Amino acid sequence: MNIGIRENCIRCGRCVEVCPxxxxxxxxxxxxxxxxPEACILCGHCVxxxxxxxxxxxxxxxxRVHAADRxxxxxxxxxxLLLAVRRSNRVLADREVPPELLRRIVAAADRAPTASNARxxxxxxxxxxxxxRRISQYTLGVFGKIARRLSNPLLRPVLRRxxxxxxxxxxxxxxxxxDFEAGTDRILRGARAVLIIHAPKAxxxxxxxxxxxxxxxxxxxxxxxxxxxYMGFVMxxxxxxxxxxxxxxxxxxxxxxxxxxxxxxPRFQYPNYIDREPAGVTWR
Length: 284
Prior knowledge:
The protein has ten helices and eight strands. The chain is of the alpha+beta class. It has two domains: 3-64, Alpha-Beta Plaits (2-Layer Sandwich), CATH 3.30.70.20; 74-270, NADH Oxidase. The strands form three sheets. A four-stranded antiparallel sheet has the order 5-6-8-7, with helices on both faces. Helix 5 crosses helix 9.
């Protein structure tokens, strides 16, 4: 990795302090030097922290470095309001999510931090109606297999002791199946797009990284006026499917799905937000 220090360096030492890989070094009061360029993890902390643009980094040329105008950032009150109004609005209009909004949502997800700055996440945006329907059919198919297993008279006595909570979902599975056959999709809720966040199968932090990205995407979607719904049913079906049918269906063999978000344009937006009972917090 080609990394250098330009002559305008003011020796503030910020790059030395922020670099998690110890690429830079400096003797007390001396010039900053590049000591371990091969250790760089491409996080960009050094370039972002330098106040005079003195870090010359191959991966971050000047056209990819932008001055941050912090006066343009949302105020704490504005951010609190965005968090307060964000909801899983499942009442969706029958119209597409504009592609430009989808691109901004994915771009926001891609700015999320990842473990060791591995940045191994991938994003699949599904908008084809036939493929969206297949995702719902797949989910209901897995639930059908689970329901048959739970209803097996030979297995029921054992499973009731092992997974007693699963039995309360049996009526819900059946209702979802009947509704789908009647034309009402209780899985995707009429969403016109699905964002699937995936990672390499070998990733130790696939779920954590994907859900950090999901939160970025969710906040951007709310700011853009797009409804976002966490697809817990799809994720549950994927986790229970040992045959990895969803990965094959989506062409994601060798990957792990960490989060799934349904997206749609809301038929209306909530005019109010509520205060919940405060969570229990322990200070030590």
